């Protein structure tokens, strides 16, 4: 008998002492792989996206496109590995995003962009700041998010500054955990020393903003001056010191007026408090069934390093956090874990491993009933060995344990067990023949008899799965664990079935051949049922053709269900997540307070859903982004009119509805929300597969700017008419309102005022100027010192227009001139339309 590959493999290993060692080694390396292989919620796809941000101060949108955007696009398109280039241009700001091919290493992508930009620095226009290059990847997604908020009774004692400082100290402690990557804080406000100038007092005492800024900056100097020698000792000479607080700054002498000294406190108020950034975070926590408490909050996001196990990292964070609650975190502050991808990844992995074990036990029980307990025992060893070897191979290939890779094992378990079942059943059948052959020879021939069909079946399954490895885009690497792991499982199942199964069958067989009793030639009940149905089909060629045609017709008939849309076709089922996001975009120019009011109204509606445990409101600042937010650039939502609700749900086992059903309910309820005209609300779920810019995306191109806009508005009408399309939005948005100050050249020359002085004064008034830091010693963060107006004074008024500017010559020996006499006010809408208004205010 020709043994073939299978028979020879069994012949070489059935009596070898290396076979049990191979079995033992397979179990050991597999168990080690299970212990060390990283567990993730999603497959770790490398999708490098590098942002190139450019501040183009003073340029309108169309001018910035020609001067900055197009040259940058040309540079970026020439970088090796860049797949897509996106650009976003508006007044004074340009951002170009380079999206690299899936699988490109993040470090390589960022390095290529840096090198290309450095090589083309001569193409950056004069007056344009050096581009800021920021790279983001899957490893920047936070695996753990901690939300710090005071208890309701103590909310009045905690400010944004206090929460930020506590979160900063907590971050410093948690970064000591092994494998911690990117960390950042959302919300809160760092402490600063703010010198708030009073324009009227500046005019009264004849002091300019330039003098005020220069005085504070010069007084806040500390530097190494050199060294001195004294008695053979060389000492370093340090000169100056930093300002420490209100008295130091307020008593700085600026000049004299009518023989009277003028101090900083005479022309400005010195305030120590949180900075005036336009953002705020709130936490809504459920206290009872219908009782909610809203308190200020900050969120601390913690990512892991590449290749680290999310389960281990999140567990280490939780352990260290528990130790800090007694010595760092006050009792009146709650620290809530609002995201724990390590816990959810471990939960899903354990659930899938449970189902994997359940499927194995079911197969073993079925074989025990249908064939025998020895065959079932062999299968009980073969299947775990195959799975463990597959996990070992997955670890070597760089894959992690996630829901896709474990789905591949569950998907293939019904196929990979076929090899072992066929071999074991045929061995049992040959033993039951009792034809005088030695049991070893009967075993080898039994394996050889079914070996070639088994090889063909294995290779057929592998050939059917491997093409999935070559799918392009995000879907290819995302689904790659299925063909890789399933193919590996099929190959391992073949070798285990040919090597381990015969050896184990021989060891479990009765010692005396005469005692072998097997019902191999007895059809049994299943065999009789099969014969009853199969006999009429194969009795004649005509009946066989009729059966074949009937099966073909039924197949074609079932395919009509797709054409008639009688069944829903999806690539992946909805995942049951524990988080939902609500994106709220108010019209450009809306205030932070308007955004807060809209967020609070939306959060109050979300409170009505019983599955929700907490809601975080992010106004003017982005929430910690996930993989979906990484691709959609949610981390750039840093404007007062942009808000986000982070809705946290109960654990899957504690609620009846899936997250998708809850999201549909929430979207329906939010339709009753009263919102300002032009506001966009989107309920965003974490997609079951790789994220995209939008579920349905239409890119519109045209010969000029007006044509794509017109087509966009018509296309939005069409989208809104489709009943199953929701949350329709566009990238055009509204024109941002703007005030433009322009210099009156005649008055400028008349008063002898330099343009630079006027512009510096305006910039200091509305944007503020940082003059340094006040150092406070060990374990205390330095405090920034800035000269800026308080938020309440940021309006163009006559008082503000009276701010003096330096003048080289002036009638009647006046040495100062008011900024209003040298400038004109032109409010305009950003990018396109503009209208002019001239302001004529009295000169100082």
Count of distinct strands: 26
- What is the radius of gyration? 36 Å
Q: Structural class of the secondary structure composition?
A: alpha+beta
Adjacency order of strands in the biggest sheet: 14-13-18-19-17-20
Provide mean pLDDT, rounded.
84
Q: Could you describe the largest sheet, including whether it forms a barrel?
A: 6 strands, antiparallel
Give the count of helical stretches: 25
Report how far apart the termini are: 114 Å
Strand content: 15-25%
Low-pLDDT parts are: 513-521, 812-816, 821-844
User: Per the principal axes of the C-alpha atoms, what is the gross shape?
Assistant: elongated
Helix percent reads 40-55%
Oligomer: single chain
């Amino acid at each position: 008998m020709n043994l073939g590959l299978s028979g020879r493999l069994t012949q070489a290993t059935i009596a070898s002492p290396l076979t049990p060692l191979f079995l033992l080694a397979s179990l050991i390396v597999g168990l080690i792989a299970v212990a060390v292989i990283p567990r993730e919620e999603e497959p770790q796809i490398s999708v490098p996206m590098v942002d190139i941000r450019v501040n183009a101060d003073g340029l309108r949108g169309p001018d910035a496109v020609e001067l900055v955007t197009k040259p940058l696009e040309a540079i970026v398109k020439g970088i090796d590995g860049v797949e897509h280039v996106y650009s976003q241009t508006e007044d004074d700001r340009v951002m170009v995003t380079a999206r690299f091919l899936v699988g490109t290493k993040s470090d390589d992508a960022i390095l290529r962009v840096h090198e290309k930009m450095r090589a083309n620095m001569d193409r950056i226009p004069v007056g344009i700041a050096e581009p800021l290059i920021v790279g983001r990847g899957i490893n920047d997604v936070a695996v753990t998010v901690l939300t710090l908020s005071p208890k309701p009774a103590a909310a009045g004692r905690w400010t944004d500054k206090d929460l930020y400082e506590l979160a900063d100290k907590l971050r410093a402690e948690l970064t000591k955990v092994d494998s911690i990557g990117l960390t950042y804080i959302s919300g809160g406000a760092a402490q600063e020393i703010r010198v708030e100038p009073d324009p009227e007092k500046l005019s009264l005492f004849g002091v300019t903003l330039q003098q005020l800024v220069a005085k504070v900056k010069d007084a806040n100097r500390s530097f190494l001056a050199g060294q001195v020698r004294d008695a053979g000792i060389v000492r370093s000479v340090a000169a100056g010191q930093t300002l420490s607080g209100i008295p130091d700054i307020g008593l700085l002498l600026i000049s004299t007026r009518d023989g009277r000294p003028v101090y900083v406190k005479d022309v400005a108020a010195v305030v120590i408090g949180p900075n005036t950034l336009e953002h705020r975070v709130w936490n809504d926590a459920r206290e009872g069934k219908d009782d909610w408490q809203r308190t200020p909050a900050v969120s601390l996001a913690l990512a892991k390093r590449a290749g680290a196990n999310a389960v281990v990292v999140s567990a280490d964070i939780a352990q260290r956090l528990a130790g800090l609650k007694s010595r760092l975190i006050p009792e009146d502050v709650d620290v809530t874990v609002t995201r724990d991808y390590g816990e959810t990844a471990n939960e899903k992995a354990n659930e899938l491993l449970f189902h994997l074990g359940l499927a194995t036990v079911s197969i073993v029980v079925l074989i025990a009933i249908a064939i025998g307990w020895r065959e079932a025992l062999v299968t009980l060893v073969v299947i775990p060995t195959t799975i463990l070897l597959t996990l070992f191979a997955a670890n070597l290939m760089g894959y992690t344990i996630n829901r896709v890779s474990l789905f591949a094992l569950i998907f293939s378990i019904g196929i990979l067990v076929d090899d072992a079942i066929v071999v074991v059943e045929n061995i049992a059948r040959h033993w039951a023949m009792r034809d005088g052959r030695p049991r070893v020879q009967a075993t080898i021939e039994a394996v050889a008899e079914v070996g070639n069909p088994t090889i063909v079946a294995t290779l057929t399954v592998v050939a059917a799965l491997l093409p999935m490895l070559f799918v392009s885009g995000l879907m290819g690497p995302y689904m790659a664990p299925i063909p890789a792991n399933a193919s590996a499982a099929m190959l391992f199942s073949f070798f285990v079935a040919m090597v381990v199964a015969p050896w184990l069958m021989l060891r479990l067989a009765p010692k005396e051949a005469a005692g072998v009793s097997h019902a191999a030639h007895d059809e049994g009940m299943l065999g009789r049922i099969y014969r009853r149905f199969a006999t009429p089909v194969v009795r004649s060629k005509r009946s066989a053709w009729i059966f074949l045609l009937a099966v073909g017709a039924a197949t074609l008939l079932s395919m009509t269900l797709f054409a008639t849309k009688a069944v829903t076709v999806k690539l992946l089922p909805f995942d049951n997540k524990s988080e939902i996001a609500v994106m709220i975009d108010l019209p450009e120019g809306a205030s932070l307070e308007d955004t807060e009011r809209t967020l609070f109204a939306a959060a109050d509606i979300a409170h009505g859903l019983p599955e929700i445990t907490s809601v975080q409101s992010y106004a003017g600042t982005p929430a910690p982004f996930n993989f979906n937010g990484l691709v959609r650039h949610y981390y750039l939502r840093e404007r007062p009119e942009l808000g986000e609700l982070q809705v946290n749900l109960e654990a899957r086992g504690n609620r009846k509805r899936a997250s998708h059903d809850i999201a549909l309910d929430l979207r329906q309820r939010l339709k009753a929300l009263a919102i300002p005209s032009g506001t966009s609300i989107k309920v965003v779920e974490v997609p079951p597969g790789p994220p995209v810019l939008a579920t349905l995306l239409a890119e519109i191109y045209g010969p000029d700017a007006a044509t794509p806009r017109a087509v966009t508005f018509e296309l939005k009408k069409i989208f809104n008419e489709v009943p199953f399309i929701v949350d329709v939005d566009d990238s055009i948005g509204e024109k941002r309102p703007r005030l433009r100050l322009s210099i009156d050249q005649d008055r400028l020359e008349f008063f002898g005022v330099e343009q630079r002085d006027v512009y510096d004064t305006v910039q200091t008034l509305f944007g503020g100027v940082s003059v340094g830091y006040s150092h406070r010693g060990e374990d205390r963060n330095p405090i920034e010192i800035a000269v800026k107006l308080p938020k309440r004074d940021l309006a163009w008024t006559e008082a503000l227009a009276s701010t003096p500017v330096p003048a080289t010559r002036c009638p009647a020996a006046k040495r100062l001139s008011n900024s209003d006499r040298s400038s004109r006010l032109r409010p305009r809408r950003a990018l396109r339309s503009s209208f002019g208004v001239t302001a004529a205010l009295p000169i100082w």
